[in-house]
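As practice, study what follows.
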Amino acid sequence: AIYELSCEAYKHLGKTSNYYWIDPDGSGALGPLKVYCNMTEDKVWTTVYHDLQMHTAVGSNSLEKLSVVQLNYSATMDQISAITSSAEYCEQFISYSCKMSRLLNTPEGNPYTWWVGKANEKHYYWGGSGPGIQKCACGIERNCTDPKYYCNCDADYKQWRKDTGMLSYKEHLPVSQVVVGDVDRPGSEAKISVGPVRCQGDRNYWNAASFVTSSSYLHFSTFQGETSADISFYFKTSASDGVFLENLGNTDFIKLELKSATEVSFSFDVGNGPVEIIVRSPNQLNDDQWHRVNAERNVKQASLQVDQLPLEVRKAPTEGHTRLELYSQLYVGAAGGQRGFLGCIRSLRMNGVTLDLEERAKVTPGVKPGCSGHCTSYGMYCANGGKCVEKYNGYSCDCSRTAYDGPFCIKDVGAFFEEGMWLRYNFHSPGTSMKDLVSRTLLSSTDPEITAPDLSLNKEELSFSFSTTKSPCVLLYISSYTQDFMAVLVKPSGNLQIRYSLGGTKEPYNIDVDHRSMANGQPHTVNITRNGRDVVLQLDHYPPTSYSLPTASDIQFNSPKALFLGKVIEIGKIDQDIYKYNTPGFTGCLSRVQFNQIAPLKAALRPTNASSHVHIQGELVESNCGASPLTIPPMSAATDPWHLDSGLTAITTCIFNSLFTASADFPYNGQAIGDGVNRNSAIIGGVIAVVIFTILCTLVFLIRYMFRHKGTYHTNEAKGAESAESADAAIMNNDPNFTETIDESKKEWLI
């Protein structure tokens, strides 16, 4: 298997925070290791854990009166060293809690305690300080408990004290041992805590060069790949051919090139004649997108892979030469007498060593350090309207104009509303011009002189998610300086209603969604789009439904004033039904609320330029509200227990469950089987259980089959349907672990 080189690579494949296998030196001797990749908005953290518990008590247990605390990591020291050396920054938390146990013996004594880092070197500085400085963090910040000492613990108090901080000199990390000395006196106690190693960034992954002329190239020292060669890199180009790299000998050579817009070639000669391996892509490779190349050669075989295309392998001859003997410099981006490469190459690794393309490009004509245009390859990962932003080393997603956050704009921002709580977002704040409002949010006018009462909307886009068990209530309300308004309500029946009043009609225009109750405690998603007279509503995963405002209705939402969530607190006349629904108010969860480009909940929960527009009554508690909307389709034939074809499946499942039950009880009952007799008894008991379950399942199937053919009428109605508010509630009450799946052929349609 081919693993990514770092957490940075996983992020730029659109992966979210999780454990991943990485291979810091490619297919080198180190091998892959499992790490935790924490993808934040602007950084990627690689975390390697160890087995030392926090606050580990330390006691003297040797003649030398020293206590050694050993840390065992989930990776080798060489693997961790490969991560730290390529990282931009690394840190490791360390803490020493003490009671009559001195630490560094400051200001001038020999340290009682030290830690051992990379290459088994001893270090006499502590967290929050740096190499060569025999101080703790409080000594650097001059706030130690006793100012005569540079560590809190060095004051030798009988009360518990501690010295903590980050070790951030990455060339010394990780901490492999902590040696504690001053714990042999009566009353002396100490506890050690060491956090995992955390590294941010990958200098190698984005190390790139741009080749702007076909005659330009970079040169490096001769490639030392006599018996094995492992080469990997990314390229991006709009040219149809060009040489990636070449290294020559008297007759031997090694070369990688783009032979055509769909072909990558790996060729070499170790003295047995030229060998060429070609990978042909069904798609164009000169599409100005990043593509990955992996080429390997050893005494047994050679291989080439491009992106995720099938690996091409060529076996080496059983007899003949095996050593690749080169003498010239390694040329990157061109070869003698051939057309050079036009485009970008990055993260070029040869036998586990990353070549510093950027540094060499700085002094080479026709080659520029770095590469632009990352968004053309990775911008697709910025979801929900997030904007891809180019960075020198990669890209980031700007989620500021969305109702989401996170590195890819996919994390919901929501809040729980208690009874009586409400939020108001003012579209216009006194003293601010409407120019900024219009250009940044509503996108309805470009007139810089427009004022709040003059603003009108011909179209809106509104989306949000909610969950509640109480009705009636006001979910969302948009007021105006006129009598125009828009509201999304839950009626006393629990059904959803969208209400528009844009003028021209005596009564508001109502869209009633009566097919089921929305006040069932499950998350639901609402998307409303209006363009002139046309209104499109999508609820949960159901197909969108179109409506049309009455012919007499105005099509402009005049002078929008404020957006309310949970309750309407507005001056002037309010629709009578909305006024009644206002008491006691909405109770439940609202999330990912967005009106055009305004995200009122996000503005309230995250400090943004729009936060000054928000007013909150009550305490806003952040929550993602369950996130996924629920839609309950009819049962499919595969899941219908009364469907004829499902009988065999039911029996199989029953047998499987009985087997699983018989075998799965033992690991969790806390008792080991002590001898052969007990083990045999357990096996016999398990076999009997399987036979009994099989017979019962068969009987159930036969009874159902007989009743089916006697003309008995069956339904899929869940138990408790008589008392449930809806079919949804009946199914969920009957099965608390219900998880929705949508049968595309049997979707319910909105009326």
Summary: The chain is about 15% helix and 30% strand. The two ends are 51 Å apart (CA to CA). The chain has a mean pLDDT of 78.
